[in-house]
């Protein structure tokens, strides 16, 4: 999980769904543990995401055991991944355009105190 270091950038359900769909698109042999890591959730929680994606017709699964499972995006799943990715890119662009003039850089010295550059 992200912890306190990224408290302003906690993933939403859509961001986690995008991460799961993206990992499956990269490799059909991806493990639930790897999907959980990519989405920032527990392996148990990613199982709920997989069930949800299957029930919505975005994902199909083949294999007999969790070691032989293969995941495949359906055409609807590919469209959903693209929709989420485009939405993410749009939000990033909006965030970048809303930022003030370039912010001053900061460096961390070997003594671990932050100094403005």
What does this structure look like?
- The chain has 117 residues and is mostly helical.
- The chain has one domain (4-116): Arc Repressor Mutant, subunit A (Orthogonal Bundle).
- It has four helices and four strands.
- It has helices spanning 13-26, 32-39, 43-55, 75-98; strands spanning 59-62, 70-73, 106-108, 114-116.
- Strands 1-2 form a two-stranded antiparallel sheet. Strands 3-4 form a two-stranded antiparallel sheet.
- A hairpin with a 5-residue loop joins strand 3 (106-108) and strand 4.
- Helix 1 crosses helix 2 (32-39) and helix 1 (13-26) crosses helix 4.
- Mean pLDDT is 83; it is low at 1-6.
How would you sum up this structure in a few lines?
The chain is mostly helical and 117 residues long.
The total of beta strands comes to 4
Per CATH, the architecture is: Orthogonal Bundle
The CATH topology comes to: Arc Repressor Mutant, subunit A
Biggest sheet architecture: 2 strands, antiparallel
CATH class: Mainly Alpha
Keywords:
Arc Repressor Mutant, subunit A; 117 residues; 12% strand; mainly alpha; 50% helix; single chain; two-stranded antiparallel sheet; two-stranded antiparallel ribbon
Question: What is the secondary structure topology, with strand pairs?
Answer:
Elements: H1 13-26, H2 32-39, H3 43-55, E1 59-62, E2 70-73, H4 75-98, E3 106-108, E4 114-116
Antiparallel strand pairs: 1-2, 3-4
Helix pairs in contact: 1-2, 1-4, 2-3
């Amino acid at each position: 999980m992200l912890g306190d270091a990224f408290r302003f950038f906690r993933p939403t359900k859509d961001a986690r769904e995008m991460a799961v769909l993206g990992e499956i698109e990269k490799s059909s042999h991806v493990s639930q543990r790897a999907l959980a890591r990519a989405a920032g959730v527990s392996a148990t929680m990613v199982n709920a995401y997989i069930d949800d994606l299957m029930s919505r017709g975005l994902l199909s699964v083949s294999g007999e055991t969790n070691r032989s499972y293969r995941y495949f995006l359906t055409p609807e799943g590919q469209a959903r991944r693209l929709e989420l990715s485009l939405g993410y890119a749009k939000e990033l662009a909006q965030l970048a355009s809303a930022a003030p003039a370039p912010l001053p850089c900061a460096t961390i010295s070997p003594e671990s105190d932050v100094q403005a550059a």
